[in-house]
Amino acid sequence: MPKTITFNELRRLKDSLPDGSMHKIADKLNTTVQTVRNYFGGVNYDFGKNCGVHIEPGPDGGIVVLDDPTIYDMAIAILKEQENEQSPTAH
User: Fold this and answer.
1) Closest C-alpha among 6, 18, 15 to residue 78
2) pTM for the structure as a whole
3) Dihedrals φ, ψ of 21, to 5°?
4) Is 8 exposed, middle or buried (0-12, 13-18, 19+ CB in 10 A)?
5) Which residue has the higher pLDDT, 45 or 7?
6) Which residues touch 66 (CB under 8 Å, ≥6 apart)?
7) 56 three-state secondary structure
8) What is the CA radius of gyration of the chain?
9) 35: left (phi over 0), alpha (psi -120 to 50) or beta
10) What is the pLDDT of residues 65-90, one digit of tens each?
């Protein structure tokens, strides 16, 4: 099911990912790192593919429709994993 967010939200997600996340996502999906970067707004199609990201002009950087939210969901999971590692454990 497609997911709709703003372009700035997508960029904030990308910018908040820890180092190596693009490679981790690409490895899990058996695709190129550049394809993952293109998903987050990159435009290098010589070394990566278009991932079904459609950007329309509008407020907050425009509206982005993600045909397949798999990469988005993986990025959110990485951030949640990072938060869990950084939060103190209750005893």
Assistant:
1) 18
2) 0.82
3) -65, -40
4) middle
5) 7
6) 2, 3, 4, 5, 39, 51, 52, 53, 72
7) strand
8) 14
9) alpha
10) 999 999 999 999 999 999 888 876 65
